[in-house]
């Protein structure tokens, strides 16, 4: 079969493309913006990429068009697909129909940490000899790809609550019908499609409704919003996990930065983890993944040592380089909670005297709509200096955020100005973190190059 994937450069749709290619399909695709790391992965797989949504990019002999959720009515490619009467499906539907049947699906859901938790889980199952398949919303350093079919029974999928497609407004994760589901956390996000937190809770409950009674729900026991989701009805055994409290699965922090912790199951310590990741939030991600390994019947304790070799995902506090004594990181954090926990982890690692500088691009739909504007300044309290990218199209004034920062704040209109300001202000010993859920015009590497050339 020949497929054309609209929105192919997105992390989810790029993963669908990789899976389709591995299954032997011919794959081509188009997107408005094609950039690494997904473009690199797709090109390596021999997939033809076209820039823009010109209907002519869709080959006449394509058997099916797979449509990403970023496309809507009015898009020229979408309109042509409909006018031509072509066969089309969403990415989540295609995955559910072509990859998941016959597999034990493990779905990782939550406002934060989905990508990291999915990657940890796939890595631990690999260490347990399970050879899992997976679809991750990023390129896993340890696997070199964001998706693979795998030869084992388990398939691990990052289960997004965002809507499925212009013709299917349900959350993607209702398509997956998992045997094991991780509910990592739940906060308000995606203000472009959800009116309020209650609307997101309903979608999470739709996911809960799809997990069979022979399966397992692994739930963050510290999260009150998830407790309310379960109160709507639950027909599946629940295992809770957390750090501060009495849960089925507990982590005991042995280092403040989260780099060493003990894993406790039902009061019995399974072992210690020493790894390179930072922060309490990543300990929670690991704990959820360890519990999921156990739920599959694998030996979770035996898999723990593999976390010492775990390298996470590109753009999750990825250290891109050092120049003139300045360490530069690229991070995907784009929700106030994720921003705060990431900076807390870094602060615990580098100590109170090191200077942390943040370059922030408010790019997500919720950020651009101003849904998180009031929480941004408090979330950045761990930074000594924030350079805030206030593009002209941003629909709200960043001045209030910059003015409310604990540390110094500077707003700039474009990435050229941002790199210039950082180049002048950065000092040896600084830790500079670029935060955006988009390409950020390759700002981290442009800044690193500017430092090296200075």
Sheet/helix structural class: alpha/beta
What's the total helix number?
A: 15
- Write down the CATH class of the largest domain: Alpha Beta
**CATH architecture annotation name of the largest domain:** 3-Layer(aba) Sandwich
Proportion in helices: 25-40%
Main sheet makeup:
10 strands, mixed
The CATH topology annotation of the largest domain reads as: UDP-N-acetylmuramoyl-L-alanine:D-glutamate ligase
Terminal residue distance = 52 Å
Whole-number mean pLDDT: 90
Order of strands, widest sheet? 8-7-9-6-12-13-14-15-16-17
Q: Low-confidence segments, ≥5 residues, pLDDT <50?
A: none
How does this structure look, described?
The chain has 454 residues and is of the alpha/beta class. The chain has three domains: 90 residues, NAD(P)-binding Rossmann-like Domain (Rossmann fold, 3-Layer(aba) Sandwich), CATH 3.40.50; 210 residues, Mur-like, catalytic domain (UDP-N-acetylmuramoyl-L-alanine:D-glutamate ligase, 3-Layer(aba) Sandwich), CATH 3.40.1190.10; 136 residues, Protein-Tyrosine Phosphatase, Chain A (Alpha-Beta Complex). It has 15 helices and 23 strands. The chain has a ten-stranded mixed beta sheet, with helices on both faces. It has a six-stranded mixed beta sheet with strand order 18-19-23-20-21-22, with helices on both faces. A five-stranded parallel beta sheet has the order 3-2-1-4-5, sandwiched between helices. The longest helix has 16 residues. It is an enzyme of class 6 (ligase). Pathway: Cell wall biogenesis; peptidoglycan recycling. InterPro entries: Mpl, Mur-like_cat_sf, Mur_ligase_C, Mur_ligase_C_dom_sf, Mur_ligase_cen, Mur_ligase_N, MurCDEF_pg_biosynth. It catalyses: UDP-N-acetyl-alpha-D-muramate + L-alanyl-gamma-D-glutamyl-meso-2,6-diaminopimelate + ATP = UDP-N-acetyl-alpha-D-muramoyl-L-alanyl-gamma-D-glutamyl-meso-2,6-diaminopimelate + ADP + phosphate + H(+).
